[in-house]
Amino acid sequence: MHVLSLVCSLSPSPTPSSSHLLSDQVMEEFKKLGATGETIRVADHDVRPGVEIDMGGQDAWPALREKVLRADILLLATPIWLGHPSSICQRVLERLDAELSETDDQGRLLTYGKAAAVVVVGNEDGAHKVSADLFQGLNDVGFSLAPGAVTYWVGEAQHGTDYKDLDATPDEVAATTRTLAANTYHLAELLAERPYPPS
User: Fold this and answer.
1) What is the Cα–Cα distance from 111 to 129, expressed in whole angstroms?
2) Lower CB count within 10 Å: N or C terminus of the chain?
3) The NADPH-dependent FMN reductase-like domain covers which part of the protein (predicted)?
């Protein structure tokens, strides 16, 4: 199994990122299960706005899309901003919208055999709302989601503490992260063994 994590922090590398940190912790759990993985900070790439596979010019999405299509599992990590996923995360979903017109020779979306999961961090409420938005978007474009396909941390509302500033990972977050990895890995294996029927 191969996992691709798209980290949708608004900050490019090497700026420390809570989304990136929690994504790395999830990727470590996937590694324990035998998966390989790659993490990409989307802000490091010129992903153009739009809903096409290639928006032309120096658009970085076509190369990232190839990585998405090669992966068995897509992990989407985002901070919460004003109660919503980051604008970069929304852009990723918009670019994935192009997959709705891409099918195999049996009429199935190319994403149908792939599992997805979500990471959400913030120092404000909204993790359930943000994960619900991402679950729906990912499912709309063909990804499957296992039970417990999200791990998140939110600090006290209007507080300045970030996940990356914590001295240790809270036990509840660590347990949720393990569940996300185990269930999503299991689903991805099932999808690889038994593909969805033709549409």
Assistant:
1) 24
2) C
3) 1-148
